[in-house]
Design a protein that fits this description.
Length: 252
């Protein structure tokens, strides 16, 4: 290809297996890999500054055109462990929730769960960096990604959003998918899809190259995170997007 296809991926530990092949040099002549947190990757895709992004599914309605280009993404079927509402007090005593600024999907999911599942109406406040230190008393916080795995050791109450969605819908949940904002060559997509499997086949190698001591990463990659997007996950994605459309204010 004369010009490299720009691929945006998330910097969290949960994406390491999917991007491992790229980081090891696979498709180095075809793609330019850009790493950032979810909301920034989403913005780059919306602004057409990248061609493919591992993006929060909540942004799909904001794209003029989109194509899910891989069989892989970031999903769960029950407890996800790294997308949680953390609190010092029980759910019904929470007065304020600090909202993680790094992911649209997690924020939208939390708003749906507050309204339809938990049926509580705390004040929702967009948070800034290091807001985890403000999770105290009646102020809870939505924390995602690597910081959530660390926060699990600090908060008394942990409300897992993957678990809550499963309780409410009996379905898995998709947090992010590989999405392009334009049609791409079929041969490129085949190789791109295959590259996603490299790290999934070498999880021990991925873990050793990305050491993390605050959570059992083998359990995280094999039990909490579901990388292969199966049919039930697309059903769940459609349901989430329909709920998002009915609650359009869920998109911050």
């Amino acid at each position: 290809m004369a010009q490299k296809i720009k691929v945006g991926a998330v910097s969290y530990l949960n994406t390491k297996p999917l991007i491992y092949g790229f980081e090891q040099g696979m498709m180095k002549d075809e793609i330019e890999l850009i790493i950032d947190y979810p909301a920034n990757i989403a913005a780059l895709l919306i602004q057409d500054k990248i061609d493919i992004g591992l993006v929060p599914v909540a942004i799909l309605p904001l794209l003029k055109e989109y194509h899910i280009v891989s069989d892989y993404g970031i999903a769960c079927d029950g407890e996800v462990a790294s997308v949680c509402l953390f609190s010092d007090v029980p759910l019904q005593e929470i007065k304020t929730i600090l909202m993680d600024y790094q992911s649209r999907t997690s924020v939208a999911l939390l708003k749906i769960l507050l309204k339809e599942h938990w049926k509580i109406e705390p004040a929702l406040i967009p948070a800034n960096a290091d807001y985890e230190n403000e999770i105290t008393g009646n102020t809870a916080g939505l924390v995602i990604g690597d910081r959530a795995l660390l926060q699990r050791k600090k908060s008394k109450y942990i409300y897992d959003l993957g678990t809550a969605w499963k309780e409410m819908t009996s379905l898995p949940f998709v947090f992010a998918a590989w999405v392009s904002n334009k049609k791409l060559p079929k041969d490129f997509i085949v190789v791109f899809n295959a590259a996603n499997t490299i790290g999934l086949k070498k999880l021990d190698e991925v873990i050793s190259k990305n050491p993390y001591t605050d959570f059992d990463m083998k359990a995280y990659y094999t039990q909490n995170i579901k990388f292969n997007l199966e049919s039930a996950m697309f059903t769940a994605m459609d349901l989430f997007l329909s709920k998002l459309k009915r609650n359009i204010e869920s998109i911050p």
